[in-house]
Each structure stands twice: as structure tokens, then as C-alpha cells.
Predict the 3D structure of the following.
Amino acid sequence: MKRILCLLMLLLPMALFTACGDTTAETELQDGYYTAQASAFSHGWKEYITILVKSGNIVSVEYNAENASGFIKSWDNAYMQNMLHSNGTYPNEYTRYYAGQMQEGQGEGTIDALTGATSSYNSFQKLSAAVLEQARKGDSSIVLVNTD
């Protein structure tokens, strides 16, 4: 009986440590570049997020949109001027703001919406969830996300 009790006392901690290890592996971000992209164009733009993970930490976040020719939304000065006057913000401001919050919170914190960029905020939420899932899996293929 003592042998069985000793054996159980040895095996129980090993089983607990193994279970804990599996949980950590599922939540850890794997090193690499990961991208989530909108599955369709919206108002002529297709939004995307690309993150770089090093040593399990997000070290870079790029959030932007491109048109069919590959031109980046935050580089469009005419669009910026129109949006700034009508909405009070513009792509170069809100893309950096959302990306900065994601990096600062390491994908775990809440991200505040900017007034005037609510539609992009909703897309950002969906894209960021998808890109973080790719990083947890270590899957560097581009994931397409329905952002509607």
C-alpha cells in the first residue's frame, strides 16, 4: 500500500506540471511576422494588420489599408484632408493610435475607439483578433477576415 501511495505522490505533480505547460503553449505568441487582411474592399480600401513577434512579445504593429493598386490609405493626402474636416481624424492618426495601443497592451488590453474612426475601429478589432490567433498558432500565412 505504501508503494502505491508513494507512486501516486510522484505521478500527481508530474501530471499537474504537464497540464500547466500545455496551457502556456496555447496562449504564447510564436516569433515571426503575421498578417490579417480584410477579405473584401470597403469604400475602395482593404484594411490589414501585420505584427512582428520576437521573444514572445509584439515588437511592431502596422495597421493600414490599401487600394486595388496597392497605394496606402494613410499616404493619401486628399483623403486625409477630407476626412479630417468631416470626421476630426484621419488615417495616419487613427492607424498609428490603434496599432500603438495593441503593441502597448501586447494584444491583451482593451483598445479605445477614436471618434470619427468607428468603422475602422470595428475592423481593427476583428483583424487584431485574427492576427493574434495566427501568432499563437505560429501560422505565418495571411488570414482573410470578414470585417463587415
Observations:
- The CA atoms of residues 94 and 117 lie 7 Å apart.
